[in-house]
Amino acid sequence: MKRIACLLCALLLLPLTACGVEKPDPTPSPSQPVSAPPESQEPLPTPTPAPAFYHPLTGLPCDEDYSSQKPAAVMLNNLKNALPQQGNGQADIIYELLAEGGITRMLAVYQNPSQLGLIGSVRSARQYYWEIAQGHDAVFIHAGGSPEFYSTRNSRGLFTVDGVQGYYSSSQAGMFWRDRDRVAGHHYDYEHSLLTSGEAITDMLAQEGLEQHSGGYAYEMSFDDDGTPEGGSPAAVITVPFSSYKTGVFRYDASSGLYRVEEYGEPYIDGNDGSQVKVTNLIVLQTTYVVQDNEGRVKVDLSSGSGWFACGGRMVPIHWEKGSANEQFRYFNEDGSPLVLGRGTTYVCVIPTSRSVSIE
């Protein structure tokens, strides 16, 4: 009887144990890792503020708005015995075309001449250089000109800054002067000695009231941080022949992303500081040159044509058009889309259709 009573007590206690809720052990077992408190998040980087303005001719960031300011376009001598030029290394755009007899001259375009030093040597104009300057709504600066150019200028009553004829050729104007020893170690013939300066140009623009564009002019070129053309051919060395007298060479420097310019088998130098001219963009345009007179002066078709564009060590074929004298150059990819340049300076070579570039 006593054994039966003990068994009944054990059975009565069993359901209570089975239905009871166990309290969790507040101490985790060694097999369960202890959760670490959430780590504090790293602060997000401060976004780089957008540039206040972009330079209209180079697309580079700048602190001032130059979009409404007229640029200056200066004719530069490029004969071998007139080198080195001065101020060419600070040009925003350089245009190089044949002048006569196989020689070339440059048209250097400066958006903000107030920052420039000496510029020269300044030489005579041709009609087509003036038309390129007109495409930028630029003040055209030269020293003399061809009969065709003077006929156009005088018949239309155009304003240009001439170092040979008119008010600005006089010494009291302070716009031009001659220095036959303008670069240390060189002595120049008289015709290669004419100089101007950024200060003289800035004063002239203020005197003439020509600091600002009129009529809503805007330079239409687009720029990108990386202007390397998609699908372009490798172009580490680009050779651009103008004539048997002049060939330009552009060597890509991958460390800087720029093309170093050479001519006459030597670096193309700015005589102000001895530095080699370097550019982000190279544009080569092909067109028709027709000899006009016994002096070998030429007429250049600036209406439209084909060409090449190089940036970032690669090159692609392009199409271009300009049209009338007052129109700017417009460049297009082969699919018809507008060309986009890399941010930086540009060198434009206009060569005869009988010449072609080569690349390595």
How far is the first residue's CA from the last residue's CA? 114 Å
| CATH architectural type | 3-Layer(bba) Sandwich
Task: Write out the CATH superfamily name.
Answer: YerB-like
CATH fold category name: YerB-like fold
Query: Mind describing the biggest β-sheet?
Result: 11 strands, mixed
**What percent of the residues sit in helical stretches (DSSP H or I)?**
10-25%
Q: How many separate domains? A: 1
How would you sum up the global shape? globular
Provide structural commentary:
With 360 residues, this protein is α+β, with helices and mostly antiparallel strands. It has one domain (53-359): YerB-like fold (3-Layer(bba) Sandwich), CATH 3.50.90.10. Helix content is 13%, strand content 32%. The protein contains four helices and 28 strands. The protein has helices at residues 2-19, 127-135, 147-156, 198-208, and strands spanning 53-54, 61-62, 72-76, 93-100, 103-110, 118-120, 139-142, 161-162, 177-178, 194-197, 222-224, 233-234, 237-241, 247-253, 258-263, 266-267, 269-270, 275-276, 278-279, 281-287, 289-291, 298-300, 304-311, 314-321, 330-333, 340-342, 346-352, 358-359. Strands 3, 4, 5, 7, 8, 12, 20, 23, 24, 25 and 27 form an eleven-stranded mixed sheet that branches. Strands 13, 14, 15, 16, 19 and 28 form a six-stranded antiparallel sheet that branches. Strand 15 and strand 16 form a beta hairpin. It is globular, with a radius of gyration of 35 Å. The termini are far apart. The model is unreliable at 1-32 (pLDDT under 50).
